[in-house]
Amino acid sequence: MPLIVEETDPREPQATALLKASHALMQALFSPEENHFLSIDALRGNDVHFYTASAGDTLIATGALALRGTDAAPYGEVKSMFTAENARGKGAAAAILRAIEDQARALNLPVLNLETGDKLNAAHRLYGRQGFKICGPFGDYDAMPTSIFMTKCLMDTPAAV
C-alpha cells in the first residue's frame, strides 16, 4: 500500500492519537526539563507545517517543520517526528522528512536543525541517512547530556544559526 504524506491539522483524531503516543513515550524516557515537544496547539501555529503519513485510511506517522530564527538568519526545525510502533521500518518517517525538507527548500530556508533524545537510536540512524550531521545547540536550546543536535545545509552556502 503506498504511503501518502500530506499537510494535516494536528487536531485530526488519528494525528492527535499519534501525538499523544509520542508525548507519552518522551515523558517515559526523559524528564520534563529534557522534553522539548510542541503541544498540539503549538503545532497549529502559523509558523508550523504539520505532516502525516498514511497507509490506506490509517495515519501512521507525524512530523513538522517549525519556522525559526530571524529574517537575517532563518532556519527550519524538524519537530514531532513519530511513527506508530506497528509501522516502523516501512519508510514513513523518511517520507515525512522528505516532505519537511521539500517545504523548507520551497521557503528558501538555508538549513534544517533538530534536537532529538540520546536514547532514540532509530531516529539518529534515520537523520544520518538523510544527511543530517551532529552539531551544537541552536536557537533557545541549552546543551544537555540527553540532547543530540543535528543540522543539514539545504543551500550551497550554510547560514549561521
Automatic annotation (TrEMBL):
Query: GO MF terms on file?
Result: acyltransferase activity, transferring groups other than amino-acyl groups
Q: Give residue ranges for domain N-acetyltransferase.
A: 6-155
Q: Which is a Pfam family this sequence falls into? A: Acetyltransf_1
InterPro entries in the cross-refs? Acyl_CoA_acyltransferase (IPR016181), Bact_Acetyltransf (IPR050832), GNAT_dom (IPR000182)
* Keywords, in A-Z order: Acyltransferase, Transferase
Name of this protein: GNAT family N-acetyltransferase
